[in-house]
Amino acid sequence: xxxxxLKDKAAxxxxxxxSPQAVATKNKIAWIGLFADGAVVxxxxxxxxxxxxxxxxxxxxxxxxxxxxxxxxNIRFEVEHDVVCQGTVCRDLTIHIGMSDKVRIxxxxxxxxxxxxxxGALRIQRLAAHWELRPMLGQQxxxxxxxxxxxxxxxxxxLKYLGPRGVAGFSRAMKNVGEVGKSRVQQLAFAFNRxxxxxxxxxxxxxxxxxxxxxxxxSLGAWRGGRxxxxxxxxLVAGRWITATAEVSGGDGVDRRGLLVVKFCDSSELIExxxxxx
Length: 278
Known about the structure:
By secondary structure, the chain is α+β, with helices and mostly antiparallel strands. It is built from seven helices and eleven strands. Strand 5 and strand 6 form a beta hairpin.
């Protein structure tokens, strides 16, 4: 029956694990085969997305993304925690990238694999990589002349496979809600822990929606929070989004770990959507 695989958390994690395996072995066919037709890759979130079309084979947008960012780098996933919720596998991890023998960087990241079931098999519908571009570039430039060489090679590879428009699209990730956004997310958690409805309403837009676990989205006015306490760490800003590792102390005495994903409005510093994957 359609949808049953999406309810099997072990199957979802096992499927997602095929992505770093294909990356490690440089198996482009296997990696691209994980995506559904029309799937979107946002890496990092805030940059121009890449849309997979099955008819394009290995040479479409996602194939060019692979050639640009995966094929020539040695990449290792260090996964700290997985959560399966809302048909999405959320990975809290660090990705280690060897750009050359001398240039090696570690990128803190939250990865969201939004899954679908296609013809009885799991496929990725959206891959959203939340990480910070500016600090990554700062790491990359700490190796002297080796950094210059690796950065130049990476730039011309991007130009070759993505073209000038693709380079400009990637650079869009430099613009984000920054430290102001992170501060507002911490204020959101503070107001939540105090059950301060007025404080929450000052942080969110009029059409704000909150998703808590597997529950349906609701407005702030309709939401009935419990006695949970929310503690955030590892806040990452990517475009208009901020993600954070979330530790939730429940009123039932059970502590759980998940991922908080916050979306800001396009034209203001108000929060438009908040989802806790737990």
